[in-house]
Design a protein that fits this description.
The complex is a heterodimer of chains A (116) and B (112). With 116 residues, chain A is mostly beta strands. Chain A contains no helices and eleven strands. In chain A, the strands form two sheets. In chain A, strands 2, 4, 5, 6, 9, 10 and 11 form a seven-stranded mixed sheet that branches. Chain A has a four-stranded antiparallel sheet with strand order 1-3-8-7, with no helix packed on it. Chain B has 112 residues and is mainly β. The chains are: A mainly beta (116), B mainly beta (112). The interface between A and B is medium-sized, with 25 and 23 residues.
C-alpha cells in the first residue's frame, strides 16, 4: 500500500498561472480532504469530499476548486495563482466521516507551492 | 463560526518533565477530538483521540482529557523525551461531523 500520495512535491508558479495538485489514495477511503499549512496558522481545510462525485467547502475555499471524479483521486485546482496561495498543501483521507468509527485521517507527504 | 483555540503556541521542557497542551472548541456538537503530531518536514500523524462520551484516555506516556461542559480538552505527555519534539495539533469535528477543524499548533521542544 502506498497510502496517500501527492503530485507534485514542489512547484513554483508565477502570479496568474494555473495548476492542479493531485492526491491519490489506495485504501478505499470514502472521505478526502485538502488542507493548507502556513506558519502559525495550523492546518486549514480548503475543500473536502464525502464520496465520489461530491465536494464541499471548508474554512478557506476561495481561489480553489476541487473535483472527485474517481474515488481514489482528489484534485485541487488553482485557476489564477496569487502570492497569498504560497503554502504547503496536504491531502488526507479517511474511511468514514469525522464522527465515525474508522475516522482516522491519513495524510499525504505534502506539496510545497510557491507563487511569485 | 467553528473554531478551535490551542495554547501555548510554543513549549520548552527538559527531558523527563511533563508537557501539557490545551485546546478549547466552540461548537457544542463536536464529538470527536484527535491529536496529531508533525515532525519537522513530515506529514501529520494521529497519536491519540477521544470521543465525547469519554472523559480521559491514556496510551503509555500520553493521555488526553476532555471536559465537555467547559468545551476544552488537553494533551498530557509524561516523561518527555527528545523524540517528542514536534508540532502538535488538536482538532475537533465540525458541526456536521464530516470534517475536522484544527488548532494552530504547539511547537514542543524537549531538551536533554
Amino acid at each position: 500500500n502506498a497510502g496517500v500520495t501527492q503530485t507534485p512535491k514542489f512547484r513554483v508558479l508565477k502570479t496568474g498561472q494555473s495548476m492542479t495538485l493531485l492526491c491519490a489514495q489506495d485504501m478505499n477511503h470514502e472521505y478526502m480532504y485538502w488542507y493548507r499549512q502556513d506558519p502559525g496558522m495550523g492546518l486549514r481545510l480548503i475543500h473536502y469530499s464525502v464520496g465520489e462525485g461530491t465536494t464541499a467547502k471548508g474554512e478557506v475555499p476561495d481561489g480553489y476548486n476541487v473535483s472527485r471524479l474517481k474515488k481514489q483521486n482528489f484534485l485541487l485546482g488553482l485557476e489564477s495563482a496569487a502570492p497569498s496561495q504560497t503554502s504547503v498543501y496536504f491531502c488526507a483521507s479517511s474511511y468514514s466521516h469525522s464522527s465515525g468509527s474508522r475516522n482516522e485521517q491519513f495524510f499525504g507527504p505534502g506539496t510545497r507551492l510557491t507563487v511569485l | 463560526g467553528e473554531n478551535v483555540e490551542q495554547h501555548p503556541s510554543t513549549l520548552s521542557v527538559q527531558e523527563g518533565d511533563s508537557a501539557v497542551i490545551k485546546c478549547t472548541y466552540s461548537d457544542s456538537a463536536s464529538n470527536y477530538f484527535p491529536w496529531y503530531k508533525q515532525e519537522l518536514g513530515k506529514r501529520p500523524q494521529l497519536i491519540i483521540d477521544i470521543r465525547s462520551n469519554v472523559g480521559e484516555k491514556k496510551d503509555q506516556r500520553i493521555a488526553v482529557t476532555l471536559n465537555k461542559t467547559a468545551k476544552h480538552f488537553s494533551l498530557h505527555i509524561t516523561e518527555t523525551q527528545p523524540e517528542d519534539s514536534a508540532v502538535y495539533f488538536c482538532a475537533a469535528t465540525n458541526q456536521a461531523g464530516t470534517a475536522l477543524i484544527f488548532g494552530k499548533g504547539t511547537t514542543l521542544s524537549v531538551s536533554s
